[in-house]
Write a structure and sequence with these properties.
The protein is mainly α and about 250 residues long. The protein has helices spanning about 5-20, 35-45, 60-100, 115-130, 135-150, 160-200, 205-225, 225-240, 240-250; strands at about 105-110, 115. The chain is built from 9 helices and 2 strands. The protein has a two-stranded antiparallel sheet.
Length: about 250
């Protein structure tokens, strides 16, 4: 058995702990920081022995830059892993706006901030699918494989990486719009019907009368299309480990 290399373990621990700091589901405030640190240490103990010895800089400034680089790599890979939940939050905000449910906000367990009811439903849907497909294990496996194409200290910023991140961020709006599209379409139809009624009956208070119909129709369509929304989530999650490896490859390519 190879002797334990503390330098390797520390460099791996920095990348893993940064990834778990924003990792989906496991980064919720309900999970103590001590648990995440312990999990990071365990994963590092499993990955570090299989890596070649890390060559650390001689200067203190170089060592600090190397540590910051590994933390940045972990945060970037964590962002790619978590982008699905940003998509669901964006779609939930669109649905809540169309149904007029912006005032019914509650606590979002993912980031301890304000969240609308449709967004919370989509969050729990995404979390259940994420854990059911064992995506947390597949992403950690992709993290372990990322060291083959992105060794310690081998990260470089390139235009191709920037284009990749911008493209994936742009998918947030497109996928979120696709998830919220049925509710948006029904809300448009309700508004159209009441606009015609307002022309026929000018005395009608269109805003007050249409509010309850928009909420009721939106809730019905939202419930009936949850299966379709789950399919969008599954399709995105199945590509997630390859996306993490793709970003690692762009970071480490020469």
């Amino acid at each position: 058995m190879a002797p334990f290399d503390l330098n390797n373990w520390m460099m791996v621990f920095l990348r893993v702990s940064a990834l778990l700091a924003i990792f989906p589901v496991f980064s919720m405030p309900a999970i103590p920081i001590q648990v995440r640190l312990a999990l990071s240490a365990l994963v590092s103990f499993l990955i570090a022995p299989g890596l070649p010895a890390a060559h650390l800089p001689d200067s203190f400034a170089g060592l600090v830059l190397l540590m910051m680089m590994e933390v940045g790599v972990g945060l970037l890979l964590g962002f790619i892993s978590r982008i699905l939940f940003y998509i669901l939050e964006f779609a939930g905000n669109l649905i809540a706006t169309e149904m007029g449910m912006n005032l019914g906000a509650t606590l979002n367990p993912l980031n301890n901030s304000r969240g609308e009811a449709p967004g919370l439903v989509l969050f729990y849907l995404g979390a259940m699918v994420f854990l059911t497909l064992d995506m947390h294990q597949w992403i950690l496996h992709a993290l372990q494989r990322s060291y083959q194409m992105l060794p310690v200290g081998g990260a470089h910023l390139r235009a191709a990486l920037f284009n990749e991140i911008v493209g994936r961020t742009g998918q947030l709006f497109l996928t979120g719009l696709l998830i919220a599209a049925p509710v948006i379409a029904v809300s448009f139809l309700v508004n159209l019907v009441f606009s015609v009624l307002a022309r026929a009956v000018p005395q009608m208070n269109v805003f007050i009368e249409s509010f309850s119909f928009r909420a009721l129709a939106g809730l019905m369509v939202f419930g009936l299309t949850l299966n379709l929304m789950a399919q969008h989530v599954v399709n995105y999650l199945r590509r997630l480990p390859e996306d993490v490896l793709r970003v690692a490859q762009l970071l480490g390519s020469s």
